[in-house]
Structure prediction request, 265 residues.
Amino acid sequence: MPLIDLTLLRQALGPMAGRFDVDAVDSCDSTNARLLERAAAGAPSGSVLVADRQSAGRGRRGRPWVSSPEDSLTFSLLWRWSADPARLAGLSLAVGLALARALESLGARGLGLKWPNDLLFRGAEGDAKLAGILVELAADRRGMQVVIGIGLNLRAPQVSEQIVAGLADCCPALPERHQLLAALLTELAQTLELFSREGFTPLRPAWQARHLWQDQAVCLLEAGQLLAQGLCRGVDAEGALLLETAAGQQRFLAGDLSLRPGGLP
Ligand code: BTN
Prediction:
């Protein structure tokens, strides 16, 4: 039996239940991979796949995503997009913001966002990764299929290359699993609807308010190569990263950001 009971989830979703078509499984290779397959076969917008265990969980940039069933929540949501694909810029930032807001509504504190879409917890040991987001796109004759994969740590993994946190570190008590998933799906649906109508612009102030590395010295890397370094000025209305470099302010659409130890030379 999967940890998510669909009847309990429907109750927790209340009036939002009709917006989602949820499937819960004990295990699969990757909820993103399975949902992309279902999308190609015609699954509707609002389809959700939640798995206790993934044998080939995917992270950003081809990295694996490893999680343990009791200590994490892993799911993917399919969102169909019929507008111009160019307007999808900023979507992954909107998703990060939706997660932060949903968790804050359940009592989480100390959350922050890192460009483009990491949800972090500012703890005693520094900024620790709480959740990962992987947005994958495909297209069919109806438009774009947007699969939004979320891996949320409930308790911090024991072994990790990164500094990691769990929701238990940010909340006085861990929320009940069905309430948690319902809150995340509800906030995602509301945020995605606003994003569909108006793009990232109306979400930008709330994203900026949670931006953890504002005005910090950072390096931007792409495939291990240094692309740029400078002071992090947050994001523009399209979700592009703004860096104050020696050559002036520049905007970037991709890359991996890290804090520059010791500031700028
Ligand atoms: C990251 O590298 O930060 C993104 C990790 C995203 C992991 C989630 S878990 C649910 C969904 N299914 C996957 O295979 N990956 C995403």
